[in-house]
Amino acid sequence: MAEVLEIDQLVTEFATKKGLVPAVRGVSLKVRKGKTLVVLGESGSGKSVMLRSILRITPPGARLSGSIRYEDSELLESSPQQIQSLRGNRIAMIFQDSLSALDPLYRVGAQIEETIMTHQKLSRAEAKRQVIELFRKVGIPSPEERVRSYPHEMSGGMRQRAVIAMALACKPDILLADEPTTALDVTIQAQILNLFKKIQAEYGMSIIMVTHDIGVAAEMADEIAVMYAGKIVEFGEAGQILSGPAHPYTRGLMAATPRKGQRGTLLTIPGQPPLITQMPAGCAFAPRCPEAQASCTGVSPGYASLQQGHQAACILLNERSERRA
Fold this sequence. Notes:
This protein is an alpha/beta fold. The protein folds into two domains: 3-90 and 172-257 and 267-324, Rossmann fold, CATH 3.40.50.300; 94-171, no CATH class. It is 35% helix and 25% strand. The protein is built from twelve helices and twelve strands. The chain has helices at 47-55, 80-86, 98-101, 108-120, 124-137, 143-146, 156-168, 186-203, 214-220, 238-243, 248-255, 315-324, and strands spanning 3-16, 19-32, 36-40, 63-70, 73-74, 91-94, 174-178, 206-211, 223-228, 231-237, 303-307, 310-313. The chain has an eight-stranded mixed sheet, with helices on both faces. Strands 2-1-4-5 form a four-stranded antiparallel sheet. α5 (124-137) crosses α7 (156-168). The longest helix has 18 residues, at 186-203. The protein is globular and about 65 Å long. The mean pLDDT is 90.
């Protein structure tokens, strides 16, 4: 199946008093047309920075290298004007906090109208009609009235639907969703995830969704990339990852997730993800890994191929593969 976006050895570095430090460290991913790739990992893993790097909306002074290809364009070499024409048009993003994503001084409908008018060159009246239809599509009640609401006059779930409507305004090819259900209760979360599925089926768009919630990944993903300390440590089809996690970090995430009917204390992963200014040598997960050996702190692990398309970056898995060979 054709890829609509290809990321190759992406590095995103930030300037600090200690020099340049990488938040994203050599990420390579392919996004297939009409499919959902879920990037899974704890807070601090570099997931959101990776999404922002795609649209080049990282803080001033950030340095990006590697390759991000969309269709025939290399996004890291595109001019600011070229990138601006893609943002919200061909590649749209839903931010984690819907309240901060909307300007509190302007009516929500007017903000979405501006997006439509910028990219489609429509009149204000035509853009407003489209916004009302978008509100209706994403399930906002009384859309003719709600387009005149300010962000603070909407509930969290309604604001999230409005942000989704804004992202869909120009029918993008790729939707980037950064923790889109984190602040919502379980009922609203389920509604939003069903909305994503409905919209994807209708528009045929590709989705990259960032989350730390394995339940969301199980509900949405065609493929899963597990990210830790700025790197992809495991990648595969959703069924492969969820039924047979291979990397110790992925297994730790799965073991720490509550399951229906489960009793007793959940397992936890000890410690915290490393700071980008204090990255350990070798495997970044080794200080927290219950299976770590001396070799894990030597060199950064390459990928071991497990099944068709299923890979994990673990020295122990590589050693096992070599012994079987």
